[in-house]
């Protein structure tokens, strides 16, 4: 295990912010983690996956950045219908999804091509195209930093909700380092989730009537490729904001004033508003200030055209948030994790 000093994280965050960490280490096993907590018990620590959901505000992080590098994935238990798999936190999420598809396991295909690591997936309960990690997560194994022991969390204990989990609660943030995640997947007789209209259209274009998990994953690749900016070409962290959740009554009032605003039923009395449609209804649509901008095809995504600092992006996002709250009188918050 090599502990590096004054280490540039420019290539380790998808916004491409050139921030230096006082100390940096990639941990490859549990012994590495234990050793780090012995050598540096009180220095602030940042757990890092692939840096695809964070924004560094400053150009120096005064603590120790621990990049999760524990790898491996395996079948734990299976019968003819179901399988429990374990994936270690440093595995690339999409490579893991591909592995499950190749093995004929059903359940993660809609989450294909989401950037990041397996360990970060439960943190914000990643989701896309009608599916969430919540649907298949079985349990989480984590290292409790205060007591330096390994703990397991059942699916219920993880308290997974839209872009939220127990691990995001301000009181528990950074207290648990996720080591591995277990998923309960199906092998047979599971209807694939093609409820999203975009997926149906894409499958039609591909001339596929009875899709396999592989076809579904390919359709999702095509859609994502068309509408999301590639972080290797243009800095971004996916959706910068969350889609606000409001009551049906509030939605009706909004829709009356702004007919172009889109909302989706998520329960008998709640609607999830499309943040894209809200931003499109403001002067922020397609806006660019210096090297920060609203992504043209998806206004929920903020991009770094090259030289923007973390603060530039943050202030830009704060202005949008303030305007949305003022104009529509609704809650509006960030999805991306801010590292101060
Ligand atoms: C182009 C693009 C598209 C995206 N599309 C989607 C999408 O469709 N759906 C979606 O939900 N998200 C999406 N995202 C966001 C991102 O991919 C996910 O949030 C992903 O899970 C982040 O993984 P990461 O390893 O990069 O985490 P990081 O960005 O490295 O970390 C995110 C947070 O998790 C913490 N963390 C990371 N690993 C661990 C661990 N092992 N233990 C404890 N804490 C940890 C970090 O401290 C930080 O607070 C997208 C991002 C991009 C750039």
Percent strand: 25-35%
Total beta-strand segments = 20
User: Major sheet, described briefly?
Assistant: 5 strands, antiparallel
Q: How large is the radius of gyration?
A: 20 Å
Strand order of the largest sheet: 6-7-12-10-11
Total discrete domains: 3
The CATH topology of the largest domain is what? Answer: Uridine Diphospho-n-acetylenolpyruvylglucosamine Reductase, domain 3
CATH architecture of the largest domain: 2-Layer Sandwich
Give the termini separation: 26 Å
In short:
The protein is of the alpha+beta class and 340 residues long. The chain is 24% helix and 29% strand.
Overview of this protein structure:
There is one protein chain. 39% of the residues are buried. The chain has helices at residues 30-39, 93-102, 155-158, 197-205, 213-227, 248-257, 275-280, 310-328; strands at 4-8, 20-27, 45-48, 54-56, 60-68, 73-78, 82-88, 127-128, 131-132, 137-144, 149-154, 176-186, 235-239, 245-247, 263-265, 270-273, 288-289, 292-294, 301-304, 337-339. 24% of the residues lie in helices and 29% in strands. A hairpin with a 6-residue loop joins β18 and β19. Flavin-adenine dinucleotide binds at residues 14, 46-54, 68, 89, 114-117, 119-121, 123-124, 126-128, 177-178, 228, 231, 236-238, 337.
């Amino acid at each position: 295990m090599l502990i590096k000093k004054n280490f540039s994280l420019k290539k380790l965050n998808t916004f491409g912010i050139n921030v230096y960490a006082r100390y940096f280490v990639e941990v490859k096993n549990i012994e590495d983690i234990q050793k780090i907590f012995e050598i540096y018990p009180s220095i602030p620590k940042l757990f890092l996956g692939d840096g695809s959901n964070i924004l560094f505000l400053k150009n120096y992080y005064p603590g120790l950045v621990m990049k999760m590098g524990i790898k491996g994935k395996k079948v734990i238990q299976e019968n003819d219908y179901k399988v429990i798999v374990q994936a270690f936190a440093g595995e690339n999420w999409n490579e893991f999804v591909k592995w499950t598809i190749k093995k004929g396991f059903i359940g993660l295909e809609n989450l294909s091509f989401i950037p990041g690591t397996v360990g970060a997936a439960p943190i914000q309960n990643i989701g896309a195209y009608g599916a969430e990690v919540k649907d298949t997560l079985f349990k989480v194994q984590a290292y409790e930093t205060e007591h330096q022991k390994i703990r397991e969390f059942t699916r219920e204990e993880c308290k997974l909700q839209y872009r939220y989990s127990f691990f995001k609660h301000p009181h528990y943030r950074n207290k648990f380092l996720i080591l591995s995640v277990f998923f309960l997947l199906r092998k047979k007789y599971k209807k694939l989730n093609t409820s999203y209209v975009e997926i149906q259209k894409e499958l039609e274009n591909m001339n596929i009537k009875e899709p396999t998990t592989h076809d579904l994953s390919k359709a999702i690749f095509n859609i994502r490729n068309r509408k999301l900016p590639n972080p290797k070409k243009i800095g971004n962290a996916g959706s910068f904001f969350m889609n606000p959740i409001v009551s049906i009554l509030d939605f009706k009032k909004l829709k009356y004033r702004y007919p172009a605003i889109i909302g989706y039923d998520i329960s008998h009395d709640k609607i999830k508003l499309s943040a894209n449609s809200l931003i499109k209804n403001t002067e922020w649509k397609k806006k660019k200030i210096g090297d920060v901008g609203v992504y043209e095809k998806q206004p929920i995504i903020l991009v770094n055209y090259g030289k923007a600092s973390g603060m530039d992006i943050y202030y830009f996002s704060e202005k949008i948030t303030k305007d949305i709250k003022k104009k529509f009188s609704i809650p509006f918050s960030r999805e991306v994790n801010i590292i101060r």
